[in-house]
Amino acid sequence: MQTKTNVRFGFIVLLVSSIWLTNLGGWDLWNPDEPRYAQASREMMENGSYVLPQVNGRPYSDKPPLFFWLIILVSQPFGDVTAYSARLPSALAGLGLMLLTYLFGKKLYDRQTGFLAAVILCTSKEIFTTAISVHFDVILAFLITLSLYLFYCGYKEPKKKFFLTASYVCMGLAVLTKGPVGMVVPLLVIIVFLLANREGRGVSSIHLGKGICIIVGMVLVWLVPACILGGESYSNDILLQQTFGRIINSYSHKKPFYYYLYNFPLDFFPWSLFIPAAGVYFVKNREQYRLLRFPLAWFAGVFVFFTLMSCKRTLYLIPLYPAAALLTARFWTGYARMEDKGSVPLQAKTFRVSLYVLFGLFVAAGFAGTAAFVRDFSIIRPFQSIRWSVYPALSLSMLCGITGCIFVVMKKKARWSFTTIAVTMIVLSALIVFDVYPAFNRFKSARPFCRRIQKVVGRHDTLVATFEPKLFNYFLNRYPINRIEAATSLEPLLRSGEKIYILMKERHYKKASGDIKDLINIVDRGAIGHKTYFLITRKARENIRQQSIPTKRSVKARATKGPSVIPEIREKYTLTKNKLFPRLCKML
To answer: Is 279 helix (H, G, I), strand (E, B) or coil?
Structure first.
């Protein structure tokens, strides 16, 4: 039995690796995060400034450098930071997280539970989408999970002090990945677990003071030279704003306290639908509580911590996904074993309702998506050109739902439904990686617009932007691109004689005054995701002069249009008639 489980796990790892790793460069880096992180790695790589991260030629204080170092390391064979090399560290960390979940399940329970937990983890929506993108959070989750695994090994074998020291080293690496959260989260889980086990005195056994010294020492090796190079502004930002600012009163991504209550079930789909059945199962089988303490402390500690933070994103909960997978796997294995014994589990009705809801959602999603494309609904119309890339995924969804409903009606055992769900999610992930994402790239990528910009704007021409141009830094391979304020600095710049090109968002253009719009020409525009960007330049001087002094005939022609005449033009016409024309007559 153990050999079969190992073989199955090895097969799943190879299958997921072939999906996650082979086509990471099949679509471009997408706004907003991916180009920014790739650009920071590229600038470090080109400038040799490995201590102080920079974006657009300025110090980047949002994140520590470990993630950028990993991207640079895997990018060396490519000679540049590409879409594939930028995503590779996250994908490898996702596979490592899957392996750790299996080992954790094996150590806590048995090989079968560990195998199911690994499958649940890699087929959950949030883990899959984040692991194939450029994000810190999967690497952070891997390091936190590794530190917790090493702690648990040391907890089970107290004589081996190496495990505890290695756990603190992993926490130090987690801090170098995404700041203090890499230390706070695992320590919180450990303390909650010891208190839940009524081992309050056991907190002293983890040598917290020694561990914090290890973590702080590792971080200071980087932080001290970085603050010296970055100066006072960088130091204040990374030490204060990026830590306490996000926890107490966040300047970005500020969400209500209940944000994760409805977002986590969506992100843990499809396995979140079995939370009610799992809850009933664990309540009815209270003897299992002792075996659930660690994953429960893990899940609850992380969930409460991030709920109390003012800054919230769905990505932040990724460190608790291994715990959620372990709890869900424990429910499935317990249910399946009760079925094998011939006894009807007490939560059978709740479980069957969950299965009906899940498979019904699969059928509904397949039919609704297909109908939307066939009927050409307005919301789908922009994506009609890629419908043939979406149809296989929609067909798979319908097939899974119908097959699953048949299994439930026939009262097949739970493992039939589990296999159907897992196979569907794995095949669906393959379709997304090899077909759907590359098809959507035409709507999400900035590369086509940037190629057109490069044909117009020379390397020595001045290019500025009215927003933070991190997206264009990467695809134009150009930095720095100075940022200007449209309301204050744009008009004087346009009235100067310098040849200049300006990147502007559509909403900035709409808010610009009439005087500014009279001074510019729109050279090109590009839709990137749900935003539209303009490339504009200054009009020729003779065109500006002709517009600033309109002729009598042109003003009369405009006056015939009635109420649409602009008041400023009337003032210019009166000024010209009363002052300029008499002077010309005297000269003649």
So the answer is: helix
